[in-house]
Write a structure and sequence with these properties.
about 200 residues; alpha/beta; about 25% strand
Length: about 200
């Protein structure tokens, strides 16, 4: 009998079925970059070889800064939360696009505001950001990486070495936290995962 991805198995040797869906926001993001002859993008992790292989041929230059592993490490060391942002010390207006995945789900509101400020600073004029957020329906017991497959099919891959807090927010709060970004499109999937595509004001 198959185990739902929303349930936890009592069998330590049984992995739940992967949650998969086709990402409309990622497709629009990549198509938008194509108009810029690829552009330069930043992926904040978790670092994933599949994603690098998918994105690298489609962009002019790809940067990966795994903020998930840095948040986990600095939390374990008991360092102040604000210390982690020193890793995003890229030059202003350096990127045409930034992939945040569900990073905001593991930050409190003040940290999300700091991330928003840095994202706005790093993006070029009309640059885009993809933000993925979980809902109560789609809560996973572990941190996951969103793995890009063919035709923009995303699957969730557990990162069991990471232990981060979880903050679930309503759609309206997500939009408020990312003002003054312009919301371009948002998508809510049957599995409860939400995607937001923002453009720099």
């Amino acid at each position: 009998m198959a185990i739902s991805p929303y349930e936890t198995s009592t069998d330590p040797y049984h992995e739940p079925e992967p949650m998969c869906y086709t990402s409309n926001a990622l497709r629009l993001f990549v198509e938008g970059l194509g108009q810029l002859r690829g552009g330069q993008i930043l992926d904040v992790g978790p670092a994933c070889g599949d994603n690098i292989n998918f994105l690298a041929p489609r962009v002019r230059r790809l940067f990966v800064c795994d903020m998930f592993i840095r948040l986990d490490r600095e939390q374990r060391l008991g360092l102040p939360a604000q210390w982690v942002w020193r890793h995003l010390d890229y030059s202003p207006k350096n990127f045409d696009g930034i992939l945040l995945w569900d990073l905001v789900d593991h930050l409190d509101n003040s940290e999300v505001e700091r991330l928003r400020e840095l994202t706005h600073r790093m993006l070029r004029k009309s640059g885009m950001a993809v933000v993925v957020a979980l809902s109560q329906q789609s809560i996973q017991p572990v941190v996951n990486s969103f793995v890009i497959g063919d035709d923009y099919r995303l699957s969730l891959r557990p990162q069991r070495h990471l232990e981060l807090p979880l903050h679930i927010r309503e759609n309206r709060e997500m939009l408020e936290l990312f003002a003054p970004f312009i919301p371009v499109r948002s998508f809510i999937y049957r599995n409860g995962i939400r995607e937001f595509l923002f453009r720099r004001n």
